[in-house]
Design a protein that fits this description.
about 550 residues; 21 helices; alpha/beta; about 5% strand
Length: about 550
């Protein structure tokens, strides 16, 4: 067994034992533990508090609520309703609803559990790579940063948790042979079940590592014992993916699933968005000073950390190599994950998607901080440890409304039982939706189809997906979730008009809150076919706040 940098035994490899950490190193690591524990406690308190009392998160949470509800009603994903997400997160929510009842609070509890899992696994990976059993600093940082997303169980976060479990299990196997690769394979399959794109990018990053290994060793064929050990993991991953995707392929057809998940995204959605990276160096006020934005704001800070992830990984590998005289498998795998998350950041540049991708960089930065704490110079360790912890935590504590954010003062009880215990954003919105629900109740029963759209369908970028769930209604068209570049197309609107004419829902609700502008590339003008159809087949009955209430002529 190899001696780790703090005097504890590590995995197999070269190098003899090293002295136990000095009193200065112990003090520095105690400071890191204290900082991590403080972040962990504050982030957990804020996350649980806001998860159980924060209003519904509109479109993103509405997609989760409505699509899981449709599955429980027997609808087929991709065949009966469009989605750009894999089935995993919807089936997870539907399964929990079967156990605990249909309630948005169940989603929030799942979200808290995912965040807690991210924190624990990150702490375990960073601890082992830093020569310890567990890194409180990594656990606290990951929860403090990703917890800003709130308690919504985004499919990306579930996939990220699965990816970190894969890294932890495979790293344990490669370090000292503990555990079986079937667990790592199951986690890898779960990555694809929750986010297929992350699985593709992670697979490419891992393939690059295999190629580098082959070049270094002068052979393209791994040893037979390695192949035999890897077989259970590969088989488990393939079996999990088959269980998740095969029913969708059988019910919707491979072409439809591939179009929703890949071809339409590449051809239409991605070109419809031009969201530039933020100015990381602009000076902003924070703590009575003017600091660079990346050091004081979560968005810019998450972008900077995510972009720096591969560099942090290379630095951590170099430090570990010098300390242990071998390549650390944990760090190598986290480096691959830090590269794999970059397309998500670069493809959708806003604060939420930046927070999705920051965890691998935080793990690597925590390892470097742990190593800095054991620097040879007696006085350098505590100073470096304090500076690293402060720099990594500053963007989530310096800005008002981040780690220590308050609940919205205007939140009021939800206007229907379908809100569970979650509030509405304002009294005006609650009153408007109460009128919408009364209008629909007078024109149908729970489960009846309805059309929820926008006041203008030429260039819609989102829809009020949560209204389907809150009104307990199914959709009248396959396209219920509006993504940029999709519903504005004439061929899609022709398909929606055909479905509306076949189903003939008695009511439609059009929202003006979805008329948002977003930077986009120049393209053909949006079609008006859907708006013309609604104008001729439906008449306006009333307005309720931002909503136009229509009934069929």
């Amino acid at each position: 067994m190899e001696a780790r940098g703090d005097g504890t035994s590590g995995g197999a490899g070269g190098g003899g034992p090293v002295p136990a950490p000095s009193s200065s190193a112990r003090a520095a690591r105690a400071l890191l533990d204290l900082a991590g524990a403080a972040l962990l406690a504050a982030a957990l308190f804020t996350l649980v508090r806001t998860a159980l009392r924060w209003p519904l998160r509109g479109f993103d949470e509405g997609v989760l609520l409505t699509d899981a509800m449709l599955l429980l009603r027997g609808k087929a994903l991709y065949r009966d309703f469009y989605s750009n997400y894999p089935p995993g997160i919807f089936w997870t929510i539907a399964g929990l609803w079967k156990l605990f009842g249909v309630d948005p609070v169940v989603l929030r509890c799942l979200g808290v559990a995912i965040h807690a899992g991210l924190s624990v696994v990150a702490g375990r990976i960073a601890g082992r790579a830093g020569g310890r059993r567990f890194s409180l600093l990594a656990a606290g940082l990951v929860l403090a940063w990703t917890g800003l997303l709130g308690g919504v169980p985004f499919g990306w976060l579930a996939a990220l948790l699965a990816a970190l479990v894969f890294v932890e299990r495979l790293g344990a196997f490669l370090t000292d042979g503990r555990g079986r690769l079937a667990a790592a394979g199951l986690a890898l399959g779960a990555v694809g079940g929750y986010r297929h794109d992350l699985l593709v990018y992670l697979g490419l990053a891992l393939a690059a590592l295999v190629v580098a290994w082959a070049v270094r060793n002068g052979t393209v064929r791994p040893p037979d014992d390695v192949l035999r050990a890897a077989l259970p993991g590969v088989a488990t991953a393939a079996a999990f993916l088959a269980v998740v995707f095969l029913p969708a392929f059988l019910r919707a057809g491979f072409a439809r699933v591939a179009a929703d998940l890949y071809f339409d995204q590449v051809r239409w959605v991605m070109p419809s968005r031009l969201l530039p990276l933020p100015d990381l160096l602009r000076a902003v006020p924070a703590l009575g000073l003017r600091l660079p934005a990346f050091a004081a704001r979560p968005f810019e800070g998450a972008v900077a950390l995510s972009l720096a992830g591969p560099l942090l990984g290379a630095a951590a590998l170099l430090v570990a190599r010098r300390a242990r005289r071998r390549i650390d498998p944990d760090l190598l795998l986290v480096l691959a994950l830090a590269v794999a998350v970059l397309p998500q950041l670069l493809g959708r540049k806003d604060v939420y998607h930046a927070l999705y991708t920051v965890a691998p960089a935080l793990v690597l930065a925590s390892v470097l901080a742990e190593r800095a704490a054991t620097a040879p110079l007696p006085s350098l360790g505590p100073v470096a440890a304090c500076a690293a912890a402060a720099a990594l935590a500053l963007p989530v504590v310096a800005s008002p409304g981040t780690l220590f954010r308050r609940l919205p003062a205007a939140a009021v009880p939800g206007p229907s039982a379908r809100y569970g215990g979650l509030p509405e954003t304002s009294a005006a919105n609650a009153a408007a939706r109460r009128e919408v629900f009364a209008f629909l109740d007078a024109r149908g029963r729970p489960g009846d189809p309805v059309f929820v759209g926008c006041a203008d369908h030429r260039h819609p970028i989102l829809s009020e997906m949560e209204l389907y769930f809150l009104a307990d209604r199914t959709g009248a068209t396959r396209y219920m979730q509006f993504d940029p570049g999709i519903v504005g197309r004439r061929d899609v609107q022709e398909e929606m008009v055909r479905e509306l004419e076949e189903v003939r829902p008695t009511a439609a609700v059009l929202s003006r809150t979805t008329l948002l502008a977003e930077p986009k590339r120049a393209g053909p003008p949006g079609a008006t076919l859907l708006d013309d159809y609604l104008a001729t087949r439906y008449r306006s009955v009333a307005t309720a706040g931002p909503y136009l209430l229509l009934e069929r002529r």
